[in-house]
Amino acid sequence: MPVTIIIGAQWGDEGKGRFVDNSATDARFVARFSGGDNAGHTVAVGDTVYKMHLIPSGILHDGVIALLGNGMVINPISLRKEVNRLREQGVSITPENLVISSRAHLVTPAHIELDRFKESARGDDAIGTTLRGIGPAYLDKVGRRGLRVGQILDIETFAEEFEASVASHNETLVAAGVTPVDLDAVRDEYMSAINDMRPYIKDTTLLLNKALQEGAKVVAEGAQGTLLDVDHGSYPFVTSSSPTSGGVLTGLGIGPTYVKDVVGVAKSFSTRVGSGPMPTELNGEVAAKLRGTGDNFWDEFGTTTGRERRCGWLDAVLLRYSMMVNGFTKIMLTKLDILSGLDELKIAVAYEVDGERLDLPPTTITQLQRAKPIYETLSGWQEDIMDARTLDDLPQAAIDYIKRIEELCGVPIEVVSVGPHRKQVVQL
Question: Which residues participate in catalysis according to the annotation?
């Protein structure tokens, strides 16, 4: 069976985890290919809510191997905490169902301190990172001075390399007038977590390619979203990796001929965490309704950071762009139920920038900051749709909204979620 790629079509937080969970039922591997514990996926199974930051959502299925690919940056302390938390919830995690690429890179305590320092130094121009050390770890990777997971197989040599890396970054922190990392205080916990990782390390590139040659199904689980891609997002307000479909190939070490489906997951409205332009952003009562109160796990507060998300109307301009960049074969639309109770809905169908109408986003950040959305207004609906399971169960206004998004994006919508739980979906 070929590869199914599941990608966030917006700024992340689209609800990818639940669709990865659904797609994993007949998969041999569910593989993360980019990012680190700056991501957060939530899956609700019955009354239990599972939150993953590094481990792919497929870990919840028996017989599925969760794979952390070479394109990731991994904080071993965060990984250990996540493994322990999932085990406490009854999830079995062993070297038989969790594997980690020897080519992935490691996040150290020094990376986290550098992240905090650099974000603070930006002041009003702060990017809004999760302060998890992700950017500095990727900077070390491309600078050819990073620490790879495979190095920990020689634990004594790695201990020396780890200390040298922290010492080097401490020089930067001291020069900037920032308190350096206390190596004596962090060494034992970090090295203990490193030691826990050793049984899980594999050549995952070889493992995946062998499985694909044997006809196994692989689900590639995206983290963050297309509009945060370091090349194709609203730079510099982006992540440090490539969470687009192109990032799958380099982040897992597989060829494009294995890919069949590229699934885009999009919310039925827009949200964003952190800084950067968001043309359809709203304030006031509608924004508050879209966001929720924070009392429920599906409200618009970051899984990783807990930060309140910025909310706005659906932006079809950016969704079209995302479709173009990724080559989506289908779209999964989430959180349609949140729109119930609104008298009218708006979709940004184009932008006006300096007097010119644009059907795709401008290429520069300054132009995007000046973009004024051109809206199309549709009728809303009042019905609670959380029990809907077929198209006939939805009010006509909801069906019209779905069909209009399909028309604007040129990609079929195959599934719509109408609630946070596994079964709360409508197959179209």
Answer: 13, 41
Residue labelled with tokens 């359809």: 280
pLDDT at 334 over 80: yes
User: Residue 1: what pLDDT?
Assistant: 63
Cβ pair 28, 209 in contact under 8 A: no
Question: Which of 36, 21, 110, 106 has its CA nearest to residue 66?
Answer: 21
**How far is residue 269 from each of residues 272, 294, 318, 337, measured CA to CA in Å?**
10, 17, 12, 11
Do 235 and 275 touch, CB atoms closer than 8 A? no
**How many residues belong to the chain?**
428
**Separation of alpha carbons 57 and 68, rounded Å:** 11
pLDDT at 295: 60
Note the pLDDT tens digit of each residue in 245-281: 999 999 999 999 999 999 999 999 999 988 899 999 9
Query: Is residue 219 very low, low, confident or very high in pLDDT (cuts 50, 70, 90)?
Result: very high
For the entire predicted model, the pTM comes to 0.93
Identify the band that residue 25 occupies on the pLDDT scale cut at 50, 70 and 90.
Answer: confident
Residue 294 has pLDDT above 60, yes or no: no
